[in-house]
Amino acid sequence: MTQTLEPTSQPIGISEAGAARAHAVISSSGKENAGVRLFIKSGGCSGYQYGMAIDDRELEGDTILMDRGVKLIVDRMSLPLVQGAEIDYVESMMGGGFTVNNPNATSGCGCGSSFRTDGSAAQDGEGAAGCGSH
């Protein structure tokens, strides 16, 4: 069973810049009713890695919510690790990209793709990869 939340009880959100970029990417994806799926996997130099995808599937146990007109999808296992996080889109001299501002991350790597939470370790591959290999 998927869980759809009202805006007042949202576990994650998306910034104005993130929403603008997400709308552009979703509309060019050709996937009807798609949203941004945020997920966590073990790996990276800090223990966990963020993953994002444009997804039109709603899987068993997903939490689905709307923020700034963007459908956000998080699976049951990833949700506790991203509770309170905000997806953002940042432009820099090296180009632009989505980033996750996660209040649960107690440390992260220099490239911002992986993180560690206080008191929880990745299930496998922790610390096995360097920043350059995400």
The appropriate CATH architecture is Sandwich
| Global Rg | 15 Å
Total strands: the figure is 10
How many helix segments? Answer: 2
Shape, please? globular
**β-sheet strand percentage:** 35-45%
Q: Going across the major beta sheet, what is the strand order? A: 1-5-6-3-4-10-9
- Do you know the CATH topology? Hypothetical Protein Aq_1857, Chain: A
Structural class: mainly beta
Helix content: 10-25%
The helix-strand sequence is: EEHEEEEHEEEE
Nearest-integer average pLDDT: 78
Quick one: CATH superfamily? HesB-like domain
Q: What report would you give on this structure?
A:
- This protein has 134 residues and is mainly beta.
- It has one domain: HesB-like domain (Hypothetical Protein Aq_1857, Chain: A).
- 13% of the residues lie in helices and 40% in strands.
- It has two helices and ten strands; from the N terminus they run E-E-H-E-E-E-E-H-E-E-E-E.
- The strands form two sheets. The chain has a seven-stranded mixed β-sheet.
- Strand 3 and strand 4 form a beta hairpin.
- This is Iron-sulfur cluster assembly accessory protein.
- GO terms for molecular function: 2 iron, 2 sulfur cluster binding; 4 iron, 4 sulfur cluster binding; iron ion binding.
- It comes from Deinococcus psychrotolerans.
